[in-house]
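Extended Data, panel c. Modelled sequence:
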Amino acid sequence: MKFKVDRNKLLEAMQKASQAITGKSSRLLSEICRCFVFKARNESLTVMATDGEIFISTWVGIENTDGDKDFALYAPKFLKAIKSVDPQELTIEVLEYQVIVTHEVGSFALPLTDMSQVRYPEADSKTVLDYSRVHRHTFEAPGLLSILNKCNYAMAEDELRPVMNGVVMSVKETHTDFVASDGYKLVRIRKASITDSRPADFIFPKKVVNILLKILPKTGFVDTWFNEYAVDWKSEEHPGEQTPKSGCLMSVEGTEILFKPIPGRYPNYNNVIPTTFTKELIIDRKQLLKSLQRLSQFTAKSGLIRWNLNPTRLMLQAEDTDFSVNGSETLPCTYKGEVCRLGFKDYSFVQTLQNSTAPEIVMKGSGVTTAFIIEPIPQPDNEEVTMLLMPMLIND
């Protein structure tokens, strides 16, 4: 068969689909998981890619198609070849064993991958969800993008606790929490506008979060379906049989992402967020951020910065005795509580402050061995943002 397609639109579709197969060594993937699978139907070309755990499907319009055709091509080579061509209309001819791409100044040919290795779900991947159990939610794309951006810095990379390696969406009757934590820092985004009569917890894997951060548009909506049971499309013994594995489908502007969430129960994050406080500090966020960034160059390997809290001022101190360097800065603040000294890791606190755009922050806690919560002033519209940091022990 032969068809024509716009080079820019084809490249955009392949770049979206390729997110499923990036970040994993090619030697760990089966042959088909290193390929794009194309399905030409009428005037559309569906582009699919998977790493065996995440499945991405999108489409692009084509012209002059002369029939239906399914074919697969080695993804890195084909993507690199299309990138090297200037924006224009391409003519693609699919033969028995190869594909020929003709452009303004020439052509190139690439071998086809054996389609007998393909075990993808259908392009309409909604068929893999059990709608008797499905939870459906529609998000504004920029809102979901903002939430994931705020959670991104706190996700863990812990092989021993894989449930921490992602963002949990905890849906309740009164609100929904989006939470990420690595055990030292935590962020919780609470949305009262998202509710469900059937409570459910759902953990987005870190790779899926990173994919969404790259492909979510700045306008529009994201439709999400998730449930407790999904068709296991990798099952060879019982293909299409429902297995007790949760699944999720996200659809945005013609692109579908099908994946399995991280199995297991997320820790009870509400138990570690303090609700009573004896110390409260209100301070300009940008001033504090700049001071911590400057002082970070004088810390030891531990990254420790000492905080001396007083009613009207905050003194920050950093020191590396191995290299005989130190620094200190004093900032105006409003503080309620006893005069005390705290220690925080510079990089973690910088990340926390960068995770907000508010002019001020309030920091609340009780002691040097308990967590401190950090909240923006004012809170974002329709959100309640709570960030948490554990202080470090100070050896005087």
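DSSP finds six helices and 27 strands in the chain. This feature is highlighted in the accompanying rendering.
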